[in-house]
TrEMBL record:
InterPro entries: Thiolase, Thiolase-like, Thiolase_AS, Thiolase_C, Thiolase_CS, Thiolase_N. Residues 5-255 form the Thiolase N-terminal domain. Residues 263-387 form the Thiolase C-terminal domain. One of its GO terms (molecular function) is acyltransferase activity, transferring groups other than amino-acyl groups. Keywords: Acyltransferase, Isoprene biosynthesis, Transferase. Belongs to the thiolase-like superfamily. Thiolase family. It comes from the Archaea. It holds the Pfam family Thiolase_C. This is Acetyl-CoA acetyltransferase. CDD domains: thiolase. GO terms for biological process: isoprenoid biosynthetic process. SUPFAM superfamilies: Thiolase-like (SSF53901).
Length: 388
């Protein structure tokens, strides 16, 4: 089996809802990481054998196969094929895992994987969540349908988590993003985007959602988002931000790396996807982590850095409780801030998490990292990478 190497990884800044990307077409946003990867790595479009892009709401402006349209909008002509996939919140990470599998199997040598989500122009649920409810047959097999917010609330109850604990995690996430941004840790991975806003040309250079000055007092005053006051845990301050953004990784085989004189950042070691209870729905990172480690013949102690997507604070807290006794700790997890701070542009997030890890391994000289995400209707995805 061949090695799948991460040559480079980038993302756009994440614009807040109705922020600086509100007039930017999703196809243009999707093209930005592709243009940056080409500029940074000096390849011709025909070098790319496929583009695999995740997108959770592939309708309206994000329809028509945004994976195929992104390289065309990037100016690469008609030679580069592309495909869009939807594994809900895990789409960008699944796109990367599928691309890696292609390289490992010897089917392709150079691919780009990533994702895009413009949550302002194509709001969450636009793909029919409300207009096309589940078939009655679904309820012959499952008693109840919940939304993700309610799933997060039930996880908090199951693990006996308090709102204060979740708020503390959220404050840490915001502060970590602020420290990382000020320290320049995002400089090599976040590429500026020139776009039109209200008829004027602007350059977006920084994430717009983070509030690094957030404190516990501020969060304690926010109203609950999913339940009545006194009966819940989650609010906008300890849940992921709704943002617009895209991300992508350049993946290649060892032969391609040598041919193009590229210096790879990391190797994809192992990938995994699991199914879990669709009611609580968001516990997938726990078995996904366990199973990807088992497949890689590694222990948790062998991993130096973790990204656990902060869809909701309880998801990360539950993962830490289940894995903490075996070596995982908050100090090694989401070290540069997570989705509570920078936001969660659904289809782009998974590729962005792997981008963060590849750059952080390179910056710190550490060896291995693991990314995992919860997914709607009860799934989990995980990827292990190691520095080369």
């Amino acid at each position: 089996m061949k090695d799948a190497l991460i040559v480079d990884a980038v993302r756009t800044p994440f614009g807040k809802r109705d922020g600086s990307f509100r007039d930017t077409h999703p196809q243009d946003l999707a093209a930005e990481p592709l243009k940056a990867l080409r500029e940074r790595n000096g390849f011709e479009p025909e070098t790319i054998e496929d583009v695999i892009y995740g997108c959770v709401s592939p309708v309206d402006e994000q329809g028509l196969n945004v994976g195929r349209l992104a390289p065309m909008v990037a100016g690469w002509g008609d030679i580069v094929p592309g495909v869009q996939l939807n594994r809900m919140c895990g789409s960008g990470q699944q796109a990367t895992n599928f691309a890696a599998a292609n390289v490992m199997a010897g089917q392709h040598d150079v691919l780009i994987a990533g994702g895009v989500e413009h949550m302002t122009r194509v709001p969450m649920g636009s793909d029919g969540d409300d207009e096309n409810p589940l078939t009655d047959t679904y309820f012959e097999h499952f008693d109840e349908r919940t939304h993700q917010g309610e799933g997060a609330e039930r996880i908090a109850e199951e693990y006996d988590l308090s709102r204060d604990e979740l708020d503390e995690l959220a404050v840490d996430s915001q502060q970590r993003w602020g420290e990382a941004w000020e320290d320049g840790r995002y400089d090599d991975q976040v590429v500026p985007v020139e776009t039109e806003l209200d008829g004027e040309t602007v350059t977006v250079e920084e994430d717009e959602h983070p509030r690094p000055g957030t404190d516990l007092e501020t969060l304690s005053s926010l109203p609950l988002a999913f339940r009545e006051e006194g009966d819940g845990f989650h609010h906008p301050g300890n849940s992921s931000g709704i943002v617009d953004g895209s991300s992508a990784l350049l993946l290649a085989s060892e032969d391609a790396v040598e041919e193009h004189d590229w210096e790879p950042m990391a190797r994809i070691v192992q990938t995994e996807v699991v199914g879990v209870d669709p009611v609580t729905m968001l516990k997938g990172p726990i078995p996904a982590t366990e199973q990807v480690l088992e497949k890689a013949d590694l222990e948790l102690e062998d991993i130096d850095l973790f990204e656990v997507n902060e869809a909701f604070a309880s998801v990360v807290a539950a993962w830490l409780e289940e894995t903490g006794a075996s070596g995982a700790s908050w100090e090694d997890t989401n070290v540069n801030g997570g989705a509570i701070a920078h936001g969660h542009p659904l289809g782009a997030t998974g590729a962005m998490l792997l981008t963060k890890l590849a750059h952080e391994l390179e910056r710190t000289g550490k060896d291995r990292a693991l990314s995992t995400m919860c997914i709607g209707f009860g799934q989990g995805v995980a990827t292990i990478i190691e520095r080369v």
